[in-house]
Fold this sequence. Notes:
The complex is a heterodimer. Chain A is mainly alpha-helical.
Amino acid sequence: MSARADNRAAAALRALGIAAWLTVLAQAAPASEIPLPERRSGYAFMRAETRAMQDDDSANPGMLWVLDGDRLWNAKAGAAARACADCHGDARMSMRGVAARYPAYDAARARPVNLQQRINLCRSEHQQAQPLASESRDLLALAAYVGRQSRGLPIAPEVDERAKPFLEAGRAAFQRRQGQLNLSCAQCHDDNWDRRLAGNAITQAHPNGYPIYRLEWQGLGSLQRRLRNCLVGTRTQAYDYGDAELVNLELFLMWRARGMILETPAVRP
Amino acid sequence: MSTARALINVPATARRGDIIDIKALISHEMETGFRRTQLGVPIPRDIITQFVCTYNGAEIFRAEFHPAIAANPFLAFSTIATESGTIAFHWTGDNGFSATESAAISVA
């Protein structure tokens, strides 16, 4: 057989393999949530080299953003000429455990806001500064710096009666089949997390290290960036950054990972 | 002078003759020069091209970087602790990029 015919045969086999896999998914039993003791961080799926990169603060590139965030925390901004530190003081004390509680319900907006939105609300309300753009280096740096203060603490979202409808909306989004491939998040991340897709571990999708330094991105990125990646992967029209649907999903994912240890800034492949 | 962030790791103290590990991480996009924008315009190359580490002024490690090196390059290497002093790091690259860091080491 010629090399070209070989390639064609291989491609056909691959297509069959993917089709078979999708068929398995389509026939799989309805999504069942992962029992709490069986939850595993994305860290557990990584190779030793990637784990070593995350564990060593002088090798973890996410720490470069944390350093930037430290500078921004103390830099005066906006018409009020106030720094984060002018109100919140030493972040190592005041921000300890904060990232583990977000997204959190905001009474004024009558809906949950995530950490990046909270930082921008603080900027517009208290610093009278322009909000930072989604995924901008400065916003990620501040989020990484605040997140770093909760490293090693358990995720502890506060879901009260007011936040509950948003949590349920997030759960529904997680279990809803969508996109051209007609896949739900749960079909991969609840039902098939111990398998592989295109050679990569599927994982359980716990958001316990955001913002993450993703090797594929060659940079730091937020949970919403990751969610949008996944949506594109299932050929779904991705929601815009800051969209309520994404925040609801974030809230559900944090609740689903409650009690797991925060690793911010985590490294992921 | 650039505003690049660097993280270096050098043991603060060592015994004479010890092999010490040195790590250096720096923030840099490492734009390869091979990519194009959505409009087809080439994105010019912007990489770090050279890294030099000196120990009390004497060069102990040098590396040349090329477009295949990942963003935020990380280097780890070792040397022998000979005397107290300063270990200095210097990165240079395209568009006049230049960054310097240093760390003190005390050798007993």
